[in-house]
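Q: Second attempt. The first request was missing the SMILES, so the protein and S-adenosylmethionine are both included now.
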Amino acid sequence: MNKNTQERKQDPEEMDRIAKTLFAPVYPVLAECFLAGFGRRDGTCLDLGSGPGHLAMAVAQASAMKVYALDRSTDVQNIIGKNLCNAGLEGKVIPLAGDVREIPLPDASVDLVVSRGSVYFWDDLHAAFCETARVLRPGGMAFIGGGFGNADLRDRIVSAMAKRKPGWEDFYKANMSKETTDRFCQALSGIEGVTSNLLNDDSGVWVVMRREAPP
Ligand SMILES: C[S@@+](CC[C@H](N)C(=O)[O-])C[C@H]1O[C@@H](n2cnc3c(N)ncnc32)[C@H](O)[C@@H]1O
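A: Got both inputs this time. The predicted holo structure:
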């Protein structure tokens, strides 16, 4: 975790407010990117570091997937419960309390892992990526990283956030830097049974992991 990241405190109420306003258009766009990249819309999905659950809800709304929304923050668990109730998604999105270093799900139980904006706060990337690989079913895929879905949303949001929160632009630039992507690549080495690559385009920067399917 870089110094810049360690210094940033995350207020769950504020996270939810931003997710419901400025960031709101991002989640359906990203859900569509991940579902299209995976090529299936059924099975089980897991959102790592879901926060108030907006990406998890967007995946559930765009698919027939059952979605687990995992976050380590107990304050976030309360907010996600209210959001699911308001969206009528109780039972389709299931909140899970836990840490990405120890995902409370069985081996090979998840088809699609998604995660946006959380990886920058993980202090043991290798452990988190090993856990991601462990829970993926054969043929399963993971998209873990950060971004805003497309160039237009990115440019609008980066400019608005830079005005709104002093220091945010430095945080964003550090997250998108080569130093950070190099740390991702290093943390992926030695994980067996999966292939990984880095996707860096207008949607954001994503670690893409695939568990090999049996021949
Ligand atoms: C910036 S928020 C992003 C929330 C959400 N993914 C979104 O895009 O709206 C990061 C979230 O990651 C969670 N988080 C950070 N480290 C975590 C860890 N080690 N295990 C589980 N959740 C974690 C935080 O509690 C926070 O809710």
